[in-house]
Amino acid sequence: MSKKIVQIENVGQTFATKKGTFTALRDIHLDIHEGESVSLIGHSGCGKSTLLNLIAGLTLPSTGVMLCEGREIAGPGPERAVVFQNHSLLPWLTCFDNVYLAVERVFSAKEGKVKLKERTREALALVGLSHAESKYPHEISGGMKQRVGIARALSMQPRILLMDEPFGALDALTRANLQDELMKILAATRATMVMVTHDVDEAVLLSDRVVMLTNGPAATVGEILDVKLERPRDRLALAHDPVFGNCRAAIMEFLYQKQLRVAA
Amino acid sequence: MSAAAMTDQPVKELGEGEAGKAVEAGRVASYKPAVVGAPVMAAAPAPTGAGLGERLQVALQALLRAFVPPVAGLALLIGLWHLATLNGGGIPSPGKTWDAAVVLFSDPFYREGPNDQGIGWNVLASLQRVGMGFGIAALVGIPAGFLLGRFAILSRMLNPIISLLRPVSPLAWLPIGLLVFQRADPAATWTIFICSIWPMVLNTAQGVTRVPQDYLNVARVLKLSEWKVFTKILFPAVLPYMLTGIRLSIGTAWLVIVAAEMLTGGVGIGFWVWDEWNNLKVEHIIIAIFVIGIVGLALEQALMLLARRFNYESR
C-alpha cells in the first residue's frame, strides 16, 4: 500500500445557523494515497465542496481528525494547492504574474529570481499557455483561465492537488479537452489529486477511486468505487469499454436510485 | 387620360431600348477585356471617392447628433436669460456679461493689493485650499477606510460616530476651525478636510469588505504575508471603490469651498463672488458661477478618466 497523504478520521462538520446547528457532514472516514486520483461525487448540497475545503484547511472540522502527511491540518497551505471552481485569478495581474505570485511564495526562500521565472514559465508551458503569459485574465477564454488556475496550483509543487468542480463552468468540448490534458499532466507529474465533480463520466475517466456521498444534511461517504481501468485512458476507446460502462452504471445507480432526491 | 397614356408609351419604349444597349455594351466588354479594362480602371476611383464622401457624411451626421442637442440646450438657456433681462432689473443681460467676461479674462493674473486680484489667482487660491484639505483628508481617510474594512470591531466602534457626523453641513465645522486655528485660512482648509473625508473613509471601507472571498482564499492557500495581501490583493481590489470615494469627495469639497470662502474672506473664488456682490457687479457673479461650474466639471471628468483607467472589471 502506498503512503497516505491525507487521512480523514471520523470527521463531522456543523455550522451554526439562525435555526440552530446544521450538520453538513458526519462520520467521514477517508484516506488519500500518494499518486492516486480521487473524485468526490454526490447531489448538489451534499457537502462535497465542504469536504474539499476541509482538506484544503479553508475551514476546520467540528469533530474528528484530519491529517496531511501525519500532521494535523490547522489551516490552508501551499502543499495542498486548490484549483477553484471559478478560476479565482487576480484580474489585475497577467497570467504570468498570477502564477509567479504562487511560485514566489513557495520557492523564493531558496531560489533566485531567474529560477522563479523559469518555474513560472514551465508551469504555463505545462498547460500549453506559454503564448498567453503576458495576457490579463479578461483577455483569455474561460478554459484558458482554468488552465492558468491549474498552472498556478501545480507550480507550487503541492503534495496534493485539490480541485473544486474545476471544469463545471466550461462548455462540453472545452471540458473534454482540459480533462485529457489534466490526465496527461497528472501522469507526467504523478501528482495526487482530489476532485469535486457532479459529472459521472468525468469522475470515472479521471479517477482511481470515486467517493460517493449520501444526500445532505448530515451527508457521509455512501460507497467507494474502484475504477479498474488501465492508464493512459482514452475517452474514445473507453466509450465501448465494459469496465467503464459498469463503473458508470454503479455511480448512476447510487445517485439516481439509492440517493434519489425527492425534491430536486 | 389618353394624353397621359400616349406620353407613357414612348418613355417605356425608350427605357427598353437603353437597357438593350447596355446589355450589348456589357457583351463587348467581356469580349475585349484589355481594351475596356482601361476605362474601367480610370473610372475606379470615382466609386471610392463617393464612398469617402459617404463616410464623411456619416461622420458629419454623428458629429451633428453629438453636438447639436447640447448647443441647442445652451442656446435655450442664454435665450431665456436674455428674455428675462429684457425688462431691465438687476440681472445683467448675456451680452453685457460676455463683455465683462472678455475684459476679465484678458488679464486674469493681475495683482493690485490683497483684495483686488485677477480671477485666475482667485480660482488658483480656491483650488489650492481644496487640494490641501482634500489631500490631508485622503491621507487620513483612505488608511482609516482600510482599517475599518479589515477589522470589524473598529467598524462597529466608529460607524455610529461616522453616521452621526456625516450629515452635518461642513460649514457647521467652520467656527470650530476658527476657534482651533485662530486664522481664517486653515479654518477653510479644515472645513474642506472634514467634508471630504467621509466619502473616502466609507467607500474604501466598503471596498475592503467587498473584496471577493475567492481572492482572499487564494491568499490563504498561498499563505501570503499581510504586506503581499495588501499590495497584491486588497489594494488593487479596493482601488475602484477608493476612486469613487475620491470623486465624491472632490465634488463636495468644490461645493463647500465657495461657501467657506464667503465666510472667511481672503483670496478665492468664493470670496470674490461675495466681494463682487458688495461692489454690485452682478455680471461678475454670473461669470463666477460659470467658472465654478467649469472647474468642478473638469475635476470630476479628470477623476472619471482616472477611475476608468484603474477599473479592471471593464477592461
TrEMBL record, chain A:
Signal peptide: none
Membrane topology: Peripheral membrane protein
Pfam families noted in UniProt: ABC_tran (PF00005)
Keywords (A to Z) from UniProt: ATP-binding, Cell membrane, Membrane, Nucleotide-binding, Transport
Localization in the cell: Cell membrane
GO molecular function, one term: ATP hydrolysis activity
InterPro entries in UniProt: AAA+_ATPase, ABC_transporter-like_ATP-bd, ABC_transporter-like_CS, ABC_transporter_ATP-bind, NO3_transporter_ATP-bd-like, P-loop_NTPase
Primary location class: membrane
GO cellular component: plasma membrane
ABC transporter domain boundaries: 6-240
NCBIfam families to which the protein is assigned, alphabetical: ntrCD
Family indicated by similarity: Belongs to the ABC transporter superfamily.
Name under which the protein is recorded: Nitrate/nitrite transport system ATP-binding protein
Lineage: Bacteria, Pseudomonadati, Pseudomonadota, Betaproteobacteria, Rhodocyclales
Automatic annotation (TrEMBL), chain B:
ABC transmembrane type-1 domain mapped to chain residues: 123-307
Stored InterPro entries: MetI-like, MetI-like_sf, NtrB
Gene3D superfamilies per record: MetI-like
Gene Ontology molecular function terms on file: nitrate transmembrane transporter activity
A biological-process GO annotation: monoatomic ion transport
Cellular localization per UniProt: Cell inner membrane; Cell membrane
Keyword Membrane: yes
Transmembrane stretches, start-end: 62-84, 130-149, 252-273, 285-307
Any Pfam family: BPD_transp_1
Protein keywords: Cell inner membrane, Cell membrane, Ion transport, Membrane, Transmembrane, Transmembrane helix, Transport
Taxonomy, superkingdom: Bacteria
Gene Ontology cellular-component terms listed: plasma membrane
Main subcellular location: membrane
Topology in membrane: Multi-pass membrane protein
Family, similarity comment: Belongs to the binding-protein-dependent transport system permease family.
Protein name per its UniProtKB record: Nitrate/nitrite transport system permease protein
